[in-house]
Amino acid sequence: MDEVFDFNSLVALCRETHTTMQQRAARSVNIELVVRNWLFGWYIVEYQQNGADRAEYGRSVLKKLSVALTENLGRGFSERSLEQYRKFYQTHLEISQTVSAKFKSPFALSLSEGAKIPQTLSRISLTVPELTQKFELSWSHYVSLLTVDHPEERRFYEIEAASNSWSVRELERQIGSSLYERLALSRNKEEVRTLSKKGLVLEKAADLIKDPLVLEFLELEERTSYSEDELEEAIIDKLEQFLLELGKGFLFEARQKRFTFDNDHFYVDLVFYNRLLRCYVLLDLKRDKLTHKDLGQMQMYVNHFDRHVKTEDEQPTIGIVLCHRKNDALVELTLPKNANIFASKYQLYLPSKEDLKKQLESITEELERDGARYSGS
User: Fold this and answer.
1) 56-84 pLDDT, tens per residue?
2) Distance between CA 141 and CA 164 in Å, rounded?
């Protein structure tokens, strides 16, 4: 009899995979769950493309599969969940090479030959140790990532969540605050695509900068009457969230760090240390528009730390002036090109994702045009 892959085979394969994965002792229960869900997505896509009786079920296959699996396995297999499994597989198609390399047609199953199910599952199980190495996050993380439509943006968040051990809540906050777009817009257009391939790699001072810095977690109303002391106090009260917004490798050192020069006392609002770049990072808060005097003051702070605080094996100090409004032309005119001083806006509300995406799309289109001109030359 010719081998076929029909709906009953789909149900049986999901059921047996579920049972087998429950019994395995791999790295963690959650990774096993992720692998199981990816396999379910693979089965569903394969069935919808090649199932012998797929025309009989049409668009209702997920609904009927949900009913069948719930009867066999209990709760946890809603139609919505099955749709997530399918989308999860489709967003990680490159992983299918791990499985398909083992056998050409894993779903060549016969309706009348039930023995084919455990045989196929046995072959698939051989790939599970390799599959568990492909996933680093919990299923809840991947569910959050599925809400990100753009592949490069989604890949960036996946890399960052794994490398920084973000909780699901932290991941959702970074997605909601448009971290990818803000980082991309703070960089040269040639560096934008690198974010989706490697995540955020800290190699130079400019890699730290986000513009704007989003401080919605301070829970302050958007008004102009906040003093710098009030803003600083709010940051200290929510220091853990502020460090997350700053990015990788930040350690808090001091608040209102005093140093004396020529009998005058000066105070740096916030002092951090970045263990990845191995340098001090000074933060000065300005509640309104940035001025050239603010930049000059930060230059003095940076010079003091470079000459009197940092050790010889540490990297030059970075200064960031955090302001409510800024003029990029003023910053460029005031600071030399090699200055380790930056100005970044802050805002007390989540940014408009649509506006940021439009700006990023403009940069991406320009990058693609440059690439086309280069390849045609």
Assistant:
1) 666 788 999 999 999 988 888 999 999 99
2) 13
